[in-house]
């Protein structure tokens, strides 16, 4: 059994320059908790696998495939593989 406290997990360096805590990495899955301060954003990027974002609190903008939509607390956003995506905190 592996139990991880997300709030005390070490931050991982990343190309986005934001707070990212790698919570789980296995051969088949990865979970990363990303914290975006006001004005911060993930850079537009592409991943080889589908990803999802779950917004715990606050409001922001998600951009997937050139389409932007506002998102807020308790929202799950799916982004398919090989589609440019990013998340922005307002």
Structural features, described:
By secondary structure, this protein is an all-beta fold. The protein contains no helices and seven strands. It has strands spanning 19-25, 30-35, 51-55, 59-64, 67-72, 75-79, 85-89. Strands 5-4-7 form a three-stranded antiparallel β-sheet, with no helix packed on it. The chain has a two-stranded antiparallel sheet with strand order 1-2. The chain is globular and about 40 Å long.
Throw out a few tags for this protein.
single chain; mainly beta; two-stranded antiparallel sheet
State the major sheet.
Answer: 3 strands, antiparallel
Overall pLDDT: 95
**In order across it, which strands form the biggest sheet?**
5-4-7
Helix content: under 10%
SSE order and pairing:
Blueprint: E1 19-25, E2 30-35, E3 51-55, E4 59-64, E5 67-72, E6 75-79, E7 85-89
Antiparallel strand pairs: 1-2, 3-6, 4-5, 4-7
Please provide a brief summary of the model.
By secondary structure, the protein is an all-beta fold.
């Amino acid at each position: 059994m592996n139990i991880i406290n997300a709030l005390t997990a070490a931050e991982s360096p990343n190309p986005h320059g934001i707070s990212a805590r790698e919570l789980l990495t296995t051969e088949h899955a990865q979970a990363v908790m990303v914290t975006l301060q006001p004005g911060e954003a993930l850079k537009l990027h592409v991943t080889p696998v589908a990803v999802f974002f779950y917004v715990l609190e606050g409001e922001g903008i998600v951009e997937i495939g050139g389409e932007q939509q506002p998102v807020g607390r308790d929202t799950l956003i799916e982004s398919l593989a090989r589609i440019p995506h990013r998340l922005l905190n307002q």
